[in-house]
Write a structure and sequence with these properties.
It comes from Streptomyces anulatus. With 590 residues, the chain is α+β, with helices and mostly antiparallel strands. The longest helix has 31 residues, at 472-502.
Length: 590
């Protein structure tokens, strides 16, 4: 604001000139003049500027106010001041000393992190301090949940409060002292005493994967967004095949920002600070190119007894088809010179998600149409794809879309592009026959479909015109998280029964449902009986066959690794069946 007034002190400027200044001198990632107009509009109301002749003019009142301001500019990217991180406290220094390659690989995934309170202005650090102190000297599960509920108004649900507790454990701040009580870890005690944000950053880096490593990605990737970082996170998660969600990456970025290690440039972009650069160089970090080998060793394949997934090589897996479709979709969205490219990429992406369709294009016609559902319950969705090389699609008329829908018998329209300016987005969101979809979200759905596939019913929020564009991701994320929780539950069940089978004092390795649920609770899984029985039945089915069931008791007949192989094999069998069908179809055509 003050810097904008200063820019007008020498001469009046247009909004476009002020936008160029914001981009070039202040590194603000604004794609349109809208943020500039917001500021000049407010300044005009206060009498500090006047708007006429397509220029913004500084008034005498503005000059008087400007004289009282202290102005600032961002640190140039090529500036590299020498910054020395403060030394780590004793227990934290010991924690960092233990971070060899094996320890880095064994860190928690940190896939479901939730810090109550606000993430801005260090609020997340304050929240973590308050929660950690609540566990000194110790606290019970029930008391901790009640403390979270009473302290943070937005964490009133028991499940939310438990997630906050689980987050503290994942971040290395609390540990169990019994089956029902928790206490602060030695490293957390040292951080509470020092109050040094870098000490917290060190603890978190030692506890969860892809934390300090985010700094390396910010340095290597040109203008990385949270979506890009989320996709690249899979390279740093040896205990898991799926990439992190954007929410999990955002939590990391908010913590890095609160600790002064990154600075936020826009809603989705960040840059490493000089302190962040020094922190990165001072910490042992996970290097995926060195850590993964083409073939997993025997140690890597061995299951962990704490319920976490086994370490599996990622380089041995070929690039999923979905990744190629998603990459083309994102590139095509910015290729304004070739709009048909996005039209075709959109039809391909929706087809990959189970909505087969056809590209049409041309003046006065839909860009394409797809079918959602099968048989008499299916419906036709028209597709309108918009490209933009410079950011959100500028306001364009939506007149004529109803006629285009009628021409192909479509029930509704999918308006797809790399974001839309406010007025266009508002008009489309308020139309009951238009579903607005950001290409970045569609690309993420396509990528996830390879690893966390959703049914058409679960994908319905993606194309539902009754949902606002801003709400689609949250609706889909609930289904993704449910799928991930189900996978974690299945893994834990096989591992629990494997441990029981190997116990020399337990003959036969059989466990009843009550004992299984009790063991799940000790591992942090609080699941109702129905989902547990459903998962056990799936694992005991003839197609998987890694469990046996007898009189409501279960035992394992295969290792965790074998169970994973059998589940993955089902996908290969379906792919082989599809290839066989195509071969037969081609032979018959010939």
């Amino acid at each position: 604001m003050g810097e904008l007034l200063d820019a007008l002190a020498s001469e009046p400027r247009t909004h476009e000139q002020l936008l160029d200044l914001a981009r070039e001198e202040f590194d603000l990632q604004w794609d349109t003049p809208a943020p500039v107009r917001d500021r000049t509009g407010w300044l005009a109301v206060t009498g500090m500027v006047e708007l006429f002749d397509r220029h913004v003019h500084l008034t005498e009142a503005g000059r008087r106010v400007l004289a009282t301001f202290e102005l600032g500019r961002p640190e140039p990217q090529d500036a590299n001041p020498v910054v020395l991180p403060s030394p780590a406290a004793g227990a934290i220094a010991h924690l960092i000393e233990q971070l060899d390659e094996a320890a880095l690989k064994e860190r928690a995934d940190g896939a479901n992190l939730y810090i109550p309170g606000t993430s801005a202005n260090g609020g997340s650090l304050d929240a973590l301090q308050v929660l950690t102190k609540a566990a000194i000297p110790s606290v019970s599960d029930a008391d901790f949940v009640r403390f979270v509920q009473s302290t943070f108004p937005k964490a009133q649900k028991i499940a939310t409060a438990r997630t906050a507790k689980d987050t503290l454990k994942a971040l290395g701040l609390i540990q169990r002292t019994s089956s029902e009580t928790w206490t602060a870890t030695p490293a957390a005690l040292a951080w509470v005493e020092s109050g040094e944000p870098l000490d917290l950053a060190r603890i978190v880096h030692a506890s969860i994967a892809f934390f300090g490593e985010v700094l390396g990605e910010l340095e290597q990737t040109a203008r990385p967004t949270t979506g890009t970082l989320a996709e690249r996170s899979s390279r740093y998660l040896p205990n898991r095949e799926n990439p992190l969600s954007r929410s999990a990456v955002n939590t990391r970025l908010n913590l890095l920002n609160a600790c002064g290690l990154v600075t936020r440039l826009s809603q989705t972009t960040y840059r490493m600070t000089a302190l962040g650069r020094a922190f990165k160089e001072s910490m042992p970090r996970f290097h995926p190119d060195h850590a993964f080998s083409g073939t997993p060793s025997a140690n890597d394949a061995e299951s962990h007894r704490d319920g976490s997934p086994p370490v599996i090589s990622l380089q041995s897996n070929p690039l999923p088809l979905g990744s190629g479709i998603a990459e083309e979709l994102e590139d095509a969205a910015r290729d304004s010179a070739n709009p048909k490219r996005l039209e075709k990429a959109t039809i391909a992406a929706l087809g990959y998600l189970g909505m087969p369709g056809k590209h049409v294009g041309g003046t006065g016609a839909v860009d394409g149409h797809v079918r959602f559902g099968v048989g008499t319950d299916s419906r036709i969705l028209a597709v309108e794809a918009k490209t933009s090389a410079t950011g959100p699609v500028r306001a364009q008329s939506l007149f004529g879309l109803a006629e285009h829908r009628a021409a192909v018998g479509a029930h509704s329209h999918l308006l797809i592009g790399p974001g839309f300016e406010c007025r266009m987005l508002k008009e489309a969101d308020e139309d009951p026959a238009i579903a607005v979809i950001d290409t970045e979200l569609l690309a993420e759905v396509v990528r996830r479909q390879e690893r966390t596939p959703l049914t058409l019913t679960q994908l319905a929020p993606l194309v539902d015109p009754a949902l606002k564009a801003a709400h689609r991701e949250d609706a889909l994320r609930k289904h993704w998280e449910a799928q991930e929780i189900r996978s974690q539950l299945e893994y834990a069940l096989v591992d629990i029964l494997n441990v029981e089978a190997e116990d020399p004092f337990e003959e036969g390795g059989w466990l009843d449902l009550t004992s299984i649920r009790r063991e799940l609770r000790t591992r942090g899984y609080r699941v109702k009986e129905g989902p547990v029985v459903e998962a056990l039945s799936f694992l005991a089915s003839s197609r998987i066959g890694v469990l046996q069931c007898s009189e409501q008791r279960y035992r394992c007949t295969a290792s965790v690794q074998t169970a994973g192989q059998r589940i993955r094999a089902l996908g290969s069998q379906w792919a082989a069946a599809e290839a066989h069908r195509r071969t037969r179809s081609n032979d018959e055509a010939d």
